[in-house]
Amino acid sequence: MSFTGKVVIITGASSGIGASAAELFSKEGAHVVIVGRNQDLLAASAAQCNSPLVVRADITIESEAQRVVDETIKKFGQIDILVNNAGGIPLTIGLLEDGVMKAYDDVMNLNLRSVVHLTTLAAPHLIKTKGNIVNISSTAGVTPPFRPGVSNYCVAKAGLNHFTVCAAVELGSYGVRVNAISPGPVRTNFKQNSKSPGTYEDTAKIMLLKRVSEPEEIADLILFLASSRAKSVTGVNWYSDNGCIIQR
Fold first, then answer.
1. Distance between CA atoms of 226 and 2, rounded to whole angstroms?
2. 129 CB contacts (<8 Å, ≥6 apart)?
């Protein structure tokens, strides 16, 4: 798959799935725009890419999301692919605990609202290039909460799944494809950031295939969906979960 000359924006590109996708796109000739909040991690990700545009930004802030698009257009003049990968669980608070609405707002802003906003900003440019969007969702969007305190995350990812379909319908007549990927557990810093108990080795034991994915596996799928090989695919939510959903 060659992406020579294509311009790819990847949010949450400082580590994990986003960093792996940035590296693979760069190897395939793309101009990569890596977006994240942690300067040190961004620098490490950038070191694996060929002359990327590095944008340190918090995309939950509207002006910073706008800056991501503005800097991309200023540098490259176009946008061909948008990978909405940034996400997570900033706070794990149950429905009966104090602060639940603050946690809900934070999770929704990161996992859904920022995706909607960045999509609206990038869409006019994607229409010009007949580009496409890949949203990184989660099996949490189609299964019950995997532990107390993450209902808001599940709701946000379920919303992202449906937004993917809605955006695919709305942008399809302009030649823009929109798809989602729902990974199961992936060996990243997600557990650490969300303060999830246990190890990935523990998680692997309860997966149908007795393993968890590596970030590169999801990155491979991102590149496929973004490529001309998937030119007839839109409005799809692709599971890559080692049997997590059918196991449950």
1. 11
2. 78, 79, 80
pTM of the model: 0.94
pLDDT single digits (tens) 105-158 = 999 999 999 999 999 999 999 999 999 999 999 999 999 887 888 999 999 999
- How far is Cα 10 from Cα 25, in angstroms, rounded to an integer? 10
Which parts of 59-161 are beta strand (E)? 81-84, 132-136
Report d(CA 95, CA 60) in Å as an integer.
23
Return the C-alpha torsion angle 21, 153, 37, 16, nearest 10.
-30
Q: Three-state DSSP class for 93?
A: coil
Q: Please state, in angstroms and rounded to a whole number, the distance separating the CA atoms of residues 130 and 166.
A: 18
Q: Cite the active site residues.
A: 153
Both tokens of 203, joined, read 């998680």
How many degrees, rounded to 5, is the angle at CA 239 between CA 5 and CA 69?
A: 35
127 SS3 class: helix
Smallest CA-to-CA distance from 150 within 89, 86, 87, 197 is with: 89
Q: Dump pLDDT digits (tens) for 187-197.
A: 987 656 655 66
Q: Which tokens sit at 28?
A: 């395939």
Spatial contact of 34 and 219, defined as CB atoms under 8 Å apart: no
Three-class SS state of 204: helix
